[in-house]
Design goal:
The complex is a heterodimer of chains A (443) and B (219). Chain A is built from 20 helices and eight strands. By secondary structure, chain A is α/β, with parallel strands linked by helices. A four-stranded parallel β-sheet of chain A has the order 2-1-3-4. The N and C termini of chain A lie far apart (67 Å). Chain B is mostly helical. Chain B contains twelve helices and no strands. The longest helix of chain B has 28 residues. Chain B is globular, with a radius of gyration of 20 Å. The N and C termini of chain B lie far apart (52 Å). Classes of the chains: A alpha/beta (443), B mainly alpha (219). Chains A and B meet through helix 3 and helix 5 of A and helix 2, helix 3, helix 5, helix 9 and helix 12 of B.
Chain lengths: 443, 219
């Protein structure tokens, strides 16, 4: 069994403890070997047989850097603690090993792929961790909170148990709120033939409804021909992608794409969410057999960039604070939107302070990849596992930054926790928050 | 002694070269077959432009961020691999052997330079050995196979160095040099030394994904 990281205490998790309790070694062997044989191919084999164990991926990883360079947290160290053992023992591992593998793959790796940029061979360790998540999913041994989210996806096609009537009701509520500011504003539902379908993740209607209000104001002022679906398919999030439930990921993305097709829109614009973008732009489409997504997928960063660049949104007075920008993995390392994000940040704020490292080399927030969705049991581990982020943020603050922009929901929540835990004293905003605040609106 | 020498430079050498070239071809075909059979999508993401972009950034010293972060390792890595490949191809003693066997020859390194390059390989191998011992993140993932493949690579250079200088046990080290060289050739396709032939493909695939889909740098 792979050595555990130093000083790790066992965290109680009903999903893992209950799941492991139902396992025996023959079932484990059968599942591991079935997944390895039927669901993996050249990538896994080549990566494992090519890795020269040089350890050069280590310094890419925020968990490694934040845990006093404990080698168990290095990317290759995590492969050693999981897949190497499974392969070496041909699947003959214990239920306790599977529990540990689930903890490593779900709560010690954010699938951020920074290590792929540091490996001289370009070995995709995030992919190897996804294989581990797939195995523990097939064994019914996934952390409880994120599995609950996947269950919500399965039942309601959204990640927050938002029921069918609650969705349009929330939109109408936000429409009415916004009409107090712009009387003619509408949130167009089910408008067939609109240019744009705007999709969000379920936490927006669930507890951040003001983001929908702000988006509606931006759309209205910019004169965008947009719509939102009233049916399932409005939620673009995807925790199934992170639990290894690929079949459910496929259902979710099919529903999302088919909703856009039903509404006959030209493109899908997404709110400020990174993992959802990864799912719609890069992962879910592949599972469904699309080399690239069947619709043009536009992340909010790119959308705001286009609106400001083309003058459809004008800035009335610049945001009077120095801002720094966190580049989310899924839209920076995942889609190269970092320079557009900078353009927007500089266009709306009075002063811009660069974070180091930045762009596609930025440190992960440690919340993404489903880690924050593994819930409160792992919160302290997540915060202690990203001390390096706290140091990076603090350095930006010492250079004058007062506000941190995080254009991704997971990053936003994760960084919010880091700012509070380490007492950094930066305010945190979405790009949309600032744009809404500083844009010209009808009097 | 002569019989053993004839064996090593005759049938054994043939076997080693056949297994090396055949093995490399086998590994490449097997990898591509596996991609074709199970992950055919990979072909549709491959891009020559972005593959080369990535390979160039990683094959030029200090061009990748991680190379710049580790200057000593970078120098050792590039010096080691360059000398490891060039020395056996161009050292005069090898070329004389080709000439005797097949009557053809090519450009050869001055002996002094070849000797220095051999020393570079040995010193760098020593550096990798020590790094595996003392660097916690490397030691953590080091197993018996890592020591074995490092030994397989270092052995022909150490023995070649000793044989060339004829300090002691010349005959033994000459024979051991030939034998260990043959072992290394055979080991390349069938151990993790296969990174010599496979790693350009993993790099190219990651380069393509980063270039075409992720629009980001992978170095």
């Amino acid at each position: 069994m792979g050595e555990a990281a130093k000083g790790e205490t066992k965290i109680t998790d009903q999903g893992l403890d209950g799941g492991v309790g139902r396992l025996d070694e023959s079932r484990i062997r059968e599942v591991i070997n079935t997944v390895l044989k039927n669901e993996t191919g050249a990538r896994l084999k080549t990566y494992v047989e090519t890795c020269i164990h040089c350890g050069l991926c280590s310094e890419a990883c925020h968990y490694y850097l934040s845990n006093d360079k404990d080698p168990a947290f290095s990317p290759v160290g995590k492969v050693k603690r999981t897949l190497w053992e499974m392969l070496k023992r041909k699947g003959k591992v214990t239920p306790a090993f599977i529990r540990e593998a689930a903890v490593v793959a779900h709560t010690e790796c954010n699938l951020c792929k920074r290590c792929a940029q540091y490996c001289p061979f370009g070995i995709d360790i995030a992919y190897l961790m996804s294989v581990v998540r797939r195995i523990v999913h097939r064994l019914g041994c996934t952390p409880l909170y994120i599995q609950d989210t996947a269950n919500s996806h399965s039942v309601h096609m959204n990640q927050m148990w938002v029921k069918g009537d609650e969705w349009p009701d929330t939109l109408q509520w936000q429409e009415e709120e916004a009409q107090a500011e712009i009387p003619a504003l509408r949130i167009p539902l089910e408008k067939e033939g609109a240019d744009i379908m705007y999709s969000v993740i379920a936490p927006e209607p669930k507890f951040q409804a003001q983001l929908i209000y702000q988006a509606a104001v931006i759309m209205d002022v910019a004169g965008v021909n947009w719509t939102m679906p009233a049916s399932m398919g409005w939620d673009n999030s995807d925790m199934a992608m992170f639990t290894g439930d690929n079949e459910l990921m496929g259902r979710l993305k099919r529903t999302h794409f088919e909703t856009a097709a039903r509404l006959k829109v030209k493109k899908i614009i997404m709110g400020e969410c990174g993992h959802a973008f990864r799912s719609v732009y890069d992962t879910g489409n592949r599972w469904l057999g699309w080399r690239v997504p069947p619709f043009q997928i536009v992340h909010a960063i790119e959308f705001y960039y286009d609106l400001i660049k083309s003058g459809r949104i004008k800035i009335k007075t610049k945001y009077p604070h120095a801002v720094t920008l966190h580049d989310p993995c899924n839209v920076s390392r995942g889609a190269g939107l970092h320079d557009k994000a900078r353009f927007v940040a500089k266009a709306v704020a009075a002063e811009f302070v660069e974070m180091e490292p930045n762009r596609e080399h930025n440190y992960c927030c440690a919340a993404g990849g489903g880690a924050i969705n593994c819930g409160p049991p792992y919160k302290m581990k997540r915060l202690q596992g990203n001390k390096v982020k706290a140091e990076q943020l603090f350095a930006a603050k010492t250079r004058g930054a007062g506000v941190l922009i995080a254009p991704c929901h997971n990053c936003h929540s994760g960084l919010h926790d880091i700012l509070h835990h380490y007492g950094i004293g930066l305010d945190i905003k979405f790009l949309g928050d600032i744009i809404y605040e500083v844009m010209e609106k009808p009097a | 002694m002569h019989t053993a020498y004839d064996m090593l430079t005759g049938p054994c050498a043939w076997t080693a070269f056949i297994l090396f070239f055949g093995g490399c071809l086998y590994r490449l075909i097997k990898m591509l077959w596996l991609v074709w059979k199970k992950e055919r999508f990979i072909f549709s993401y491959m891009s020559l432009r972005y593959s080369l972009r990535s390979l160039v950034h990683w094959m030029v010293p200090f061009m990748a961020v991680n190379w710049r972060r580790q200057p000593v390792l970078t120098i050792a890595t590039f010096a080691f691999h360059l000398c490891l490949i060039l020395t056996p191809l161009f050292v005069s003693a090898h070329i004389i052997l080709w000439e005797e066997a097949w009557q053809f020859s090519w450009w050869m390194l001055p002996d002094g330079l070849a000797d220095a390059m051999t020393m570079v390989v040995i010193v760098c191998a020593g550096y990798f050995f020590i790094r595996r011992l003392v660097s916690p993140e490397v030691r953590y993932v080091t197993g018996p196979s890592d020591w074995i493949i490092l030994s397989i690579v270092a052995a022909p250079f150490i023995s070649g160095f000793l044989a060339y200088h004829q300090w002691f046990a010349y005959r033994f080290f000459t024979m051991f040099h030939i034998f260990s060289g043959e072992v290394m050739l055979v080991a390349i396709p069938f151990t993790r030394l296969s990174h010599m032939i496979i790693s350009p493909f993993t790099r190219a695939y990651m380069g393509s994904e980063f270039g075409k889909i992720r629009h980001a740098r992978d170095w």
